[in-house]
């Protein structure tokens, strides 16, 4: 092993992490094309110049079995051997492969930006419930918290009064006034 070489075990661990990413049924022994591309993106094997996602797809298709839709770790190593000289031009095959493994070792799928909340002025303005008008205003209380069902649905009034009649409960008073 060359000095600064990465242990294959570390690369295999990274392979397994990416293999199970987003797939609840995955065992970590095989990796599908989508996760292979994700690994290559997250580990900076795709650099946009020498290696593109198209190259990754081509290599994936080349190393997998004809009918298979996944690759094993052995096939993965084969794929990296194909990609390495492309990614590190001017380096020897072995050195390039080691450098690629160096990019992968110890990495896991990055969930960067998956749950980032967009904080733009436009979004703030649109979600500021104090500026709502009309019927939408009635869906929120003063603190801006939604009232849930009461604020949203027209809840039928089964008291026997006419729907939009605002003078409910005033009939008795009118009778008294007319006496």
Helix content: 40-55%
The total strand number stands at 2
Q: What is the typical, i.e. mean, pLDDT? A: 79
How much β-strand is present in the residues? under 5%
How large is the count of helical segments? Answer: 9
What structural class do helix, strand and pairing data support? mainly alpha
State the end-to-end CA separation: 109 Å
The description of the largest β-sheet is:
2 strands, antiparallel
Order of strands in the sheet with most strands: 1-2
Which radius of gyration do the C-alpha atoms yield?
Answer: 31 Å
What's the overall geometry?
rod-shaped
Helix and strand pattern: HEHHEHHHHHH
Tell me what the structure shows.
The chain is mainly alpha-helical. The protein has helices at 8-20, 33-42, 53-63, 73-87, 93-104, 121-126, 134-137, 149-152, 171-178; strands spanning 30-32, 70-72. Strands 1-2 form a two-stranded antiparallel sheet. This is Tubulin polymerization-promoting protein family member 3. Residues 131-165 are annotated as: Disordered. It is found in: Cytoplasm. Residues 135-155 have a biased composition (Basic and acidic residues).
């Amino acid at each position: 092993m060359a000095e600064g070489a990465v242990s294959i075990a570390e690369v295999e661990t990274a392979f397994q992490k990416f293999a199970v990413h987003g797939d609840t049924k995955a065992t970590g022994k095989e990796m599908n094309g989508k996760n292979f591309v994700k690994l290559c993106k997250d580990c900076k094997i795709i650099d946009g110049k020498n290696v593109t996602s198209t190259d990754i797809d081509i290599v994936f298709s080349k190393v997998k079995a004809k009918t298979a839709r996944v690759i094993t770790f052995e096939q993965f190593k084969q794929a990296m051997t194909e990609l390495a000289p492309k990614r590190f031009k001017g380096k020897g095959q072995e050195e390039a492969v080691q450098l690629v493994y160096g990019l992968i070792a110890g990495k896991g799928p990055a969930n960067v930006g998956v749950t980032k909340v967009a904080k733009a002025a436009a979004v703030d303005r649109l979600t500021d419930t104090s500026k709502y008008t009309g019927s939408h205003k009635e869906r929120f209380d003063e603190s801006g918290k939604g009232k849930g069902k009461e604020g949203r649905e027209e809840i039928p009034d089964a008291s026997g009064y006419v729907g939009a009649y605002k003078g409910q409960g005033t009939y008795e008073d009118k009778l008294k006034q007319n006496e």
